[in-house]
Structures are given as structure tokens and as C-alpha cells.
Predict the structure of DUF922 domain-containing protein.
Amino acid sequence: MPLAVRYMVLPIAFSIALCLCSPVAAEVIASKSYSYFDIRGKTADELDRELSRRGPTASGSSARHPGATKIRFGGEATYIQDNGRCRVGNVKVTVHTQIILPRWSSRKGASKELSMIWDALSSDIKRHEERHAEIARDQARAMERAIRALRQQRSCEAMQELVSDESARGIEEHDRQQARFDRVEAVNFQKRMLRLLNNRINGRAGEK
């Protein structure tokens, strides 16, 4: 059962407010939710077909995957204008991740071997998607720091342009990190699954 996971990113959009005086503050708000799709089967081939038929699709593609993480960035910034200069005041970056995972609904009566394979696979899918969400949260914090550190400008229009440019760079870096993570995971998938299965086999042997 190949593991090919994708994620979807919506562009960050900063809302703007001007103020004459305001305390400088920064905030990152991260939220996460889960949803599931059911699959059925009594053999590894049947589960594989179900994942290919029922799994979530990636943005811009009709291909199905065993799991996915949808990511949405947003944000707000206020600008402080003082003595002919404009600087960033309050900054808030938001990131919401929705993790989509498979759920085996016909497990009852399945063989112990298939259950062990599924437990190893499903745990790896969940770990993989959790890491996608973690990358998004880390990048939201990096974007907040970068925006907060921007230098003052002669006008708030110029300051707004800098914030927009910085948020775009942050999204591009986020996409690069996510793609790099997927490449590494794809290369190591077979080794990782063998290690997980061996650990579960050894754990069962130790319980006897």
C-alpha cells in the first residue's frame, strides 16, 4: 500500500488597520481538526483498493491518497504612523490544519496479520500528517517573527507592501518545506514500514 500524501494550502490574507498609537504585540493562533473516511476489506489488496478509491484528493488533482492535511493561513496586522514613519503594530498569524485519516470499518474478523499491517500503516499515515501540521505551525511562527521585524517605512502603504511580500515569501518557504518532507518520506517508506512491522512482531513475541 503506497503512501503518497499531499496537502493543500490557501494563500495568507492580511487585513489591515491603521492606528496612531498602539502597543506592539504579536500572536500566532493555531487550530487543528480531524476528519475520517471509512474503508472496508478483509485482505491487504482490498484495503489498498479502498484507499485508492475513497481517499482524499489533493488540490488540482483527481488522484486519491491514504491521508491528507488541509492547511489554511490567515492574518491581521495593524500599522502605527508616528513622526512621518510607519511601522508594524500588532501582528496575528493564524493557521488551521484539518487532518484527514482512514478508518477501517470492517476490522472485526480480520486476520491478526492483516490487523498488524494495518496498525503499522495507519499509525505511519497519522504520524506523517501530524508532521505536515507541525510544519505549518512552525512556519506560522516564523512568518509572525519576520513580519514583526520589518523595518519602518516612510508610509503605511509601503509598510503594507512589505508585509504582503513577506507573507508571500513565508508561504513559498512553507510549500518548499512540505514538498521536501514528502520527498524524504517517500524514499524512506519501505524501510520505515519494515521497522514498524518488526517492532510490532517483536512486541507481540515479548507478550507471549
